[in-house]
Amino acid sequence: KHRFWETQPVGQFKDLGDSSLPEGPIEPPTPLSDVRPDPYGLPSAYEWSTCDISDPSVCLEVYTLLTNNYVEDDENMFRFNYSKEFLQWALRPPGFFPSWHIGVRVKSTKKLVAFITGIPARLRVRDEVVRMAEINFLCVHKKLRSKRLAPVMIKEVTRRVHLENIWQAAYTAGVVLPTPIATCRYWHRSLNPKKLIDVGFSRLGARMTMSRTIRLYKLPDATVTPGFRKMELRDVPEVTRLLRGYLARFAVAPDFDEDDVEHWLLPTENVVDSFLVESPVTHEITDFCSFYTLPSSILNNPNYTALKAAYSYYNVTTKTPLLQLINDALIVAKQKDYDVFNALDVMENEGFLKELKFGPGDGQLHYYLYNYRIRNALHPSELGLVLL
Ligand code: MYA
Ligand code: JJ1
Known about the structure:
- This protein is α+β, with helices and mostly antiparallel strands.
- The chain has 2 domains: 5-171, Aminopeptidase (3-Layer(aba) Sandwich), CATH 3.40.630.30; 183-382, Aminopeptidase.
- Helices cover 22% and strands 27% of the residues.
- The chain has 9 helices and 17 strands.
- It has helices at 56-69, 84-91, 149-162, 193-198, 210-216, 236-247, 258-265, 322-335, 350-353; strands at residues 46-50, 78-80, 101-106, 112-125, 128-140, 168-173, 182-190, 228-230, 252-254, 272-278, 285-293, 296-298, 306-307, 309-312, 316-317, 340-344, 359-370.
- Strands 1, 3, 4, 5, 6, 7, 8, 9, 10, 11, 14, 15, 16 and 17 form a 14-stranded mixed beta sheet that branches.
- Strand 12 and strand 13 form a beta hairpin.
- Helix 6 packs across helix 7 (258-265).
- The mean pLDDT is 98.
- It binds tetradecanoyl-COA and ligand JJ1.
- Residues 71, 73-75, 77, 136, 172-174, 186, 188, 190, 201-202, 359, 361-363, 365, 387 line the site of ligand JJ1.
């Protein structure tokens, strides 16, 4: 059934529930001298091309490929539209490897037709911190689908990861593959309900009018938590301590140091927003929340072309009630003109979704590890990881 995935060191469906299998690496590392030194073969019309995303013309080619060919919802009404600035941020974290930004071009025209990326990360799985690659932005041009190009790209990124002496990876997908470590649901909080309904993102509820719906989702004009402010560079050490302490309680979570926090959480305009609560009395940082910006293109609508979406990222509370903190995040997102605020049911998010009027979406997100076995699937609330 899965001609490619059956050949890979991933949890296989047939092993589900086999408690004799140990947790941890499925196969041991090989000596680096045994890693294939040259790229996998592509069909003869195509060639590999390492993409220097810091080069604006290359970044534009990647952006254009993804804008036209990346992930859509099940009814093909919306398509993720990562911005160029977002791609630069997502692909150049501390210690990134330029060789893990892999394109496929048509030899004759040099047109970019496929892409896959890895970035390095330390992920903790239960008690072990493991160096991994996070794989993302796998995309094959619509006209080249179903030609088994994806397996070659996955093998090639695997080879380049192995060359850096890294043997595990983490990735998410909307499709079921062998075998999810967890299956999460997307939840959506309307900020601009009229537009969401007009573009078919949501529907008018039963026995609801447009004006009742607008009233239902109305938010205060200003945040309510005293000491709520934007995160700054000087906050990095304390935010790192707060976040590390919090992420320690999940079965799978990133092992962030200060450099990681500076990269992933310091605000970048239209890419990532982070806020914290500084006690007006002690000046301690007691709470933190963040979201990233990922618009979607609206396909085939006469009135609108883009949906502005915020995605809940990492949140930590020690003093402020979680509902109040996230409500303040919704208020800021509304002020900044987002149409919708999205969240997965990971971490403690179930504790605010219903109360803050998020509704379940029709999309799921499956989390996977490569070459690392977990004995039983995790509950979404055991995941302390958000991939972009
Ligand atoms: S998830 C986002 C994926 N991208 C999209 O959904 C964008 C729109 N779709 C496309 O561009 C294409 O449909 C893609 C497949 C490129 C997805 N993850 O070439 P094919 C398997 C893994 O004929 P195409 C993200 O970016 C499929 O089951 N495998 O198919 C994370 C089949 O294998 P098998 C997938 O439709 C990516 C084979 O590919 C996915 O033309 C993590 C068919 O290939 C998928 N999302 O192209 C990648 N979709 O026969 C894995 C299909 O066995 C990383 N397939 O069922 C693994 C770790 C690597 C590093 C390891 C280091 C140590
Ligand atoms: O956005 C998603 N679904 C929306 C739109 C549905 C349009 C028709 N299919 C949705 N809307 C309902 C919102 C409503 C608001 C008021 C309260 C009740 C709910 O459900 C879905 C997620 O739900 N998105 C997708 O399907 C996109 C793909 C998701 C898989 C992502 C793969 C990620 C790649 C890895 O890096």
